[in-house]
Structures are given as C-alpha cells and as structure tokens.
Amino acid sequence: MADIIKRFGWRHLRAAPTAHIRHHRSGQLTHDGPGLSFWFRPLAAALSEVPVDDRELAMTFHARTVDFQDVAVQATVTYRIADPAVAAERLDFSVDPDTGVWRGAPLEQLATLLTESAQQHALEVLARTPLAAALAEGVPAVRERVLLGLREEPRLPATGIEIVAVRVMAVRPEPEVERALRTPARELIQQEADRATYERRAVAVERERAIAENELASQIELARREERLVEQRGANSRREAEEKAAADAVRVGAEAERAVRLAQAEAEGARAVGEARAQAQAAWLRVHGDVDVAVLRALTGTRLAENLPRIDSITVSPDVLTGLLARLGAGQEPGA
User: Fold this and answer.
1) Cα separation of 181 and 141, whole Å?
2) How far is C-alpha 86 from the geometric centre of its chain's CA atoms?
3) Residue 34 per-residue DSSP state
4) Is 53 helix (H, G, I), strand (E, B) or coil?
5) Contact at 8 Å (CB) between 45 and 89?
6) Edge-first strand listing for the sheet containing 10-14
7) How far apart are CA 79 and CA 59, in angstroms?
8) Which of 18, 48, 144, 312 is the most exposed place for a label (fewest CB within 10 A)?
9) Neighbouring C-beta atoms of residue 237, cutoff 10 Å
C-alpha cells in the first residue's frame, strides 16, 4: 500500500520498490513505474498500484482417485505480475487517492483464478491414478502437471501473470482411509517391536540363566572348598590330638619315672636312716648294757627332766610334803 500525504489540496504519493504505480491525469498516463514518488491532485488523478514482487498462494483442495477415494492436496503456487500494465487493465488495482487503499480485491481475484486452474490440472492427474499410486507417487506427478498446466494456461499471460514455481506438500486420503492404510504398517512395526521385545527378554533370560549357573557353580566350588577346609581342619585336629596325646604320654611317663626314682630315693633314704637308727640304737643298747642300774636311772631322770615342760612355780601341799619326807626318810634308813 502506497503512502499518501495530504498538503493544501495536494497529495503526495510514495510507493515501495515492489509496487508498480500507474498515474492517469485527465485520461493521460503521467507516471508509470515502480517505487515512484510524486505530487498530484486527487480530483484529477486515477491511481493504480500493482505489486510486482513474488507472491505465494497456499491452497488446499479435494480430489478423487480412479478407485473413488477422496484425497486432499496441499500445494503452494509462487507467482508474480510480469506485466503490470496488462494486469491493471484486466483487474481493478485502483487505489483511493486519499488513503492509498485498493478499492477492489484484485489479489483475491488472482488467488481464485490460480486456485481453480491448479485444482483443475491436479484433478485431471488424480482422476487417472489409483489411491496407492497417488499416495506413493502423487506429489511429483501433481506438481509437474500443475506447473505445466499453469504455464500453458492462456488466461494467466493475458492477465500479466507469470508462474514462478509450484510446490505440492502432501496428497493425503481421508482420516478413516489413512488409518486403514496405516494399520498393516503399524502391525508390522508392532510385530517388529514385539519380536525385539521377545528377543531382549530371551537375552535377559539367557543372561539371568548364565548368571544363575555361575552363582551355582560358585556355590558348588565354595562348598567343595569348605569341605576340603573341614577335612583339613579335622586332620589338623587329629594331628594336634595325636601330638598332644603323645606329649601327654611322654609327660606322664617322665612324671612316672620321676615318681619311681623319687620313691626309690626316698626308700633308699628311709632304709639308710633306719639302718643308721638301728645301728645307733644297737650302739646305745650296747653302751647302756654295761652301765650300772643307778646310772641308768639317773640318765632316765635327766632325760625326763629335759623333756618335761618348763615349770615357773610349784605349790606343795602339806600332805604331799609329808609323804615325800616320809619316803625320803625311809630311803635313808638302810644306809645309815
């Protein structure tokens, strides 16, 4: 849209480089070209603004294949207005001299023309194509046919339109048909997924079995080693008991021999002591056999006195003293 400025009954128009301006004044073409800037009187001016840049038109339309299946086609047509003068003559690109806004809807008219033309050529292709082929190879076929058909369309050059490119994004069936077509592939994918899952489970089970076997083998080996350890411990215990028994036997034998020797020594000592005592007694008897009886009595009294306990004091009653004096007197009478 061109920029228009009002100044004292005059208007100043400034257009973009991609906008072709045609200015007629009193039926005469005064200005003609892109990106113009000029003053004009609104009452005597007729202005047209034709865009000359590349424009893209997105379209979606339905078609039917040879096997009576509905499909939706998504496409984009890139076009440009190659001849602005022809386009301005065939379509209403006039703008308001006060606002610079199109009075009509020329781009909508172009969109309708291009959409109907593209749809016509796409329908011709899809009407001769089965659904499976249309879904598999329909995109390039439709694109080539639409591009060729639009470039050969006589109305477009007569309107000043040039087709730059055509892109077809998708040819899709109805949702029910699409789900039905996806079912085998999904089942196949699911089967592959299930097979992969089963294989993973089988591998996991195999690994668990291998781990269990390794653990069992380890336990068996451990039990075997424990058995060997128990046997070795038993052998060591037996050897230790045997050695201890042998040591005890040696010790008992040594103690017995020592006791025997000690008993023999004690017996010999006792025998020697007895012999010595017997000899001393015999000598004592021999000595005392030749001694007078009075002497023996005196010795006996002396020995008795030696063995008597110590007497610190003695109390003699008159009766005892009388008896002793009587006995002493009786013993002295014969000698006198």
Assistant:
1) 21
2) 72
3) E
4) coil
5) no
6) 3-7, 10-14, 37-40
7) 13
8) 312
9) 10
Please give the structure tokens belonging to residue 271. 């025998």
Give residue 331's identity as a one-letter amino acid code: G
* pTM of the full structure: 0.55
**Burial annotation 130-140 (CB, 10 A radius, 16+ → b, else e):** ebeebbeebbe
Q: Which residues contact 12 (CB under 8 A, 6 or more apart)?
A: 4, 5, 37, 38, 39, 40
Q: Which of 161-175, 222-236, 277-291 has the lowest mean pLDDT?
A: 277-291
How far apart, in whole angstroms, are the C-alpha atoms of residue 48 and residue 44?
14
Burial pattern 73-97, b for ≥16 Cβ within 10 A else e, equals bebebebebbbbebbbebbebbbeb
Which candidate, 202, 201, 198, places its Cα nearest to that of 190?
Answer: 198
| 162-194 tens-digit pLDDT | 999 999 999 989 888 878 877 887 888 888 888
pLDDT tens sequence across 99-156: 889 888 999 999 999 999 999 999 999 999 898 888 888 899 999 999 999 999 998 9
Q: Give the residue among 130, 119, 121, 113 at the shortest CA–CA distance from 73.
A: 119
Beta bridge pairs of residue 47: 23, 95
Q: Is 38 exposed, middle or buried (0-12, 13-18, 19+ CB in 10 A)?
A: middle
Q: Give dist(CA 100, CA 47) in Å, integer.
A: 9
**DSSP 3-state of 20:** strand
Give Dmax (Cα) for the chain: 221
Return phi, psi of residue 30, to 5°: -100, -45
